[in-house]
Description:
CATH class: Alpha Beta
Oligomer: single chain
Structural class: alpha/beta
CATH architecture: 3-Layer(aba) Sandwich
CATH topology: Rossmann fold
Amino acid sequence: MSEPILVLDNLRANVEGKEILKGVSLEVPRGQVHALMGPNGSGKSTLANLLMGHPAYELTGGQIRFKGRDVTGLGPDERSRLGMFLAFQYPVEIAGVSMMNFLRQAVNARRSQEIKPREFLKLVQEKLEMLGMDQSFTKRNLNEGFSGGEKKRNEVLQMALLQPELAILDETDSGLDIDAVRIVAQAVNAMRGPDISFLVITHYMRILNYLDPDVVHIMFDGRVVKSGGPELAHELEEKGYNSIREQFGEVKEETTEEATAR
């Protein structure tokens, strides 16, 4: 059996001098969808940012292995070129930057040779069709005037164009209504296959109703305290996070940086 695409070994991390991750260990095999759930302040968004090498998050211990390689010391651009992707919880709006220019620059950053304009247009059209998105979507500026659902669908479009081997979705369902959650989940499902793995970070069960994850991990007070099948998410939906607090104690107060990341 081949090594899992992502292996986290006892990760510890500080934010603004405060320890947030206190020994996170988990593995994500190739082609699987793993969900990471937990209450506010448990360290989920810190973990997402740490995985992509965000400089504000200080790794103090442990190792991140991606495709069998230690990437702990690599920067975000290097991790991206290796095949990692992070869909942000709060995508940034950039006035005056066209969607197509941004998307083409993103694709070129992952390639050794620039993509030809005609090839790029064909690729965008293919992905729009796969995701059920209208062509007019790409004629706008980057997230400018987008609804919350449109911003999240734009993140999924970027993911489809970049074709990562590991996609980390940091609370992609946050702030979305039921219809928008379903649309985003359907787009993710359209990409599922043996060549891409997902780590879906969420508070709630609703997006998992559409994604049907292979494994669910529960994060609490900076650690993964429990892992299981989809039934674990249903158990949380029924009992709430109080059941986790009763088993594992109280979550410490989160930092301003953690709250912002959420």
